[in-house]
C-alpha cells in the first residue's frame, strides 16, 4: 500500500497541507490548497481555511 505524501501549500502565509495529484492545485510546479493561493490572493481573497493568515 502506497501512502500519498502531503506537502505544505506553496503560499507563504498559508498553513494548509496538500496532497499533490489528489485535489491540490498545481501551478508552475508548486502545489496550493485553493485557486486563491495559487493566483496570489487577488482582491485580498484568502483560502478560507481556519488558522490561515492568507
Task: Describe, in plain words, how this protein is organized in 3D.
There is one protein chain. This protein has one domain. The protein has one helix at 35-38; strands spanning 7-8, 17-18, 25-27, 30-32. The chain contains one helix and four strands. With 54 residues, it is mainly beta. The strands form two sheets. Strands 1-2 form a two-stranded antiparallel ribbon. A two-stranded antiparallel sheet has the order 3-4. The chain starts with 6 loop residues before the first strand and ends in a 16-residue tail after the last helix. A hairpin with a 2-residue loop joins strand 3 and strand 4 (30-32). The longest helix is centred in the last third of the chain and has 4 residues, at 35-38.
Q: Features of this protein?
A:
mainly beta, 4 strands, 7% helix
How many structural domains?
1
Beta content:
15-25%
Shape: globular
What is the tally of helical segments?
A: 1
How do the SSEs run, as a string of H and E? EEEEH
DSSP helix fraction: under 10%
Measured on Cα atoms, how large is the radius of gyration?
A: 11 Å
Largest sheet: 2 strands, antiparallel
Summarize the structure.
The protein has one helix at residues 35-38, and strands spanning 7-8, 17-18, 25-27, 30-32.
Secondary structure topology:
Elements: E1 7-8, E2 17-18, E3 25-27, E4 30-32, H1 35-38
Antiparallel strand pairs: 1-2, 3-4
